[in-house]
């Protein structure tokens, strides 16, 4: 009887340690090498979309990590006049504010030949994101979806875009709208204790329309947060919803 109990116990342990959710890893020695490789990969996606459909739609994250990548992407040779760029999210600040993702894109990606690309801002000149939700949602739906490529960053708290771990605390339905893999609104107006300002963000229903999904993270701490979320089926972090719900295997671009 003892042997049987041990075998059962061993089987139970096997069941409790599921495989981590899939990621296609690209590891680089430093940020600059990563930025160049990611820019080349995304440029190839855009060229392919233009070749197939005559235009390409790209969503990119803001924050500090992507600056070098966005500058490298700007140098890629492609038919930029047929590219539409939309921020994955934006802070509800003036477009010339230092924390504006729209400003980041204009300073880095929309330079040189890439300045011919069309930018679809998520931020509008209204006092709150909630008051601009319908026009932004309409434009994103009609002009930006389906996306051809998305580059997500991640915070050390496991947020992606402006989908923070406390999603739903301010408005009950937001967690469902933001993190369901499909069938929900593509855009959400967000307030979070983790963000200094209100946000407008794409939801996973919009992000997951892209056949090319990149996760650009740098540093050991973020890598640890990612790996833990990938392994733990009980994780409620937004990055877990990305890994669990993505219709394509996300491509991780990581450097220490
Ligand atoms: O507007 C934003 O802040 C981004 O879209 C956000 O999702 C970002 O990717 C993470 O916060 C990581 O930001 P860092 O690159 O600055 O760490």
Automatic annotation (TrEMBL):
Alphabetically ordered keywords of this record: Hydrolase
Enzyme class: hydrolase
Pathway(s): Carbohydrate degradation; pentose phosphate pathway; D-ribulose 5-phosphate from D-glucose 6-phosphate (oxidative stage): step 2/3
Gene3D superfamilies assigned to the protein according to its UniProt record, in alphabetical order: 3.40.50.1360
Residue ranges occupied by any Glucosamine/galactosamine-6-phosphate isomerase domain in the UniProt entry: 30-244
SUPFAM superfamilies: NagB/RpiA/CoA transferase-like
One GO molecular-function entry: 6-phosphogluconolactonase activity
EC number(s) on file: 3.1.1.31
InterPro entries referenced in this protein's UniProt entry, alphabetically: 6-phosphogluconolactonase_DevB, 6PGL, Glc/Gal-6P_isomerase, NagB/RpiA_transferase-like
Reactions accelerated catalytically: 6-phospho-D-glucono-1,5-lactone + H2O = 6-phospho-D-gluconate + H(+)
NCBIfam families assigned: pgl
Family: Belongs to the glucosamine/galactosamine-6-phosphate isomerase family. 6-phosphogluconolactonase subfamily.
Function: Hydrolysis of 6-phosphogluconolactone to 6-phosphogluconate.
The protein's name: 6-phosphogluconolactonase
UniProt gene name: pgl
């Amino acid at each position: 009887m003892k042997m049987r109990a041990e075998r059962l116990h061993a089987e139970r342990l096997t069941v409790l340690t599921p495989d981590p959710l899939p990621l296609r890893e690209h590891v680089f020695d430093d940020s600059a090498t990563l930025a160049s490789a990611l820019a080349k990969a995304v440029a190839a996606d855009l060229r392919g979309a233009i070749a197939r459909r005559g235009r390409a739609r790209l969503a990119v994250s803001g924050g500090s990590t992507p600056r070098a990548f966005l500058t490298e992407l700007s140098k890629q040779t492609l038919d930029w006049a047929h590219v539409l760029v939309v921020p994955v999210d934006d802070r509800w600040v003036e477009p010339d504010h230092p924390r504006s993702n729209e400003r980041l894109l204009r300073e880095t990606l929309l330079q040189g030949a890439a300045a011919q690309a069309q930018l679809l801002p998520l931020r509008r000149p209204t006092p709150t994101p909630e008051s601009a939700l319908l026009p932004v949602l309409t434009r994103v739906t009609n002009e930006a979806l389906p996306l051809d490529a998305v580059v997500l960053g991640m915070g050390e708290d496991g947020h992606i875009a402006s989908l923070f771990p406390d999603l739903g605390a301010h408005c009950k339905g937001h967690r469902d709208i933001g993190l369901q893999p499909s069938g929900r609104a593509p855009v959400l107006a967000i307030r979070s204790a983790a963000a200094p300002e209100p946000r407008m963000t794409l939801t996973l229903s919009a992000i997951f329309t892209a056949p090319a999904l990149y996760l650009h993270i740098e540093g050991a701490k973020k890598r640890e947060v990612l790996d833990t979320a990938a392994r733990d089926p009980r994780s409620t972090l937004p990055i877990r919803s990305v890994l669990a719900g993505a219709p394509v295997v996300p491509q991780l671009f990581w450097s220490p």
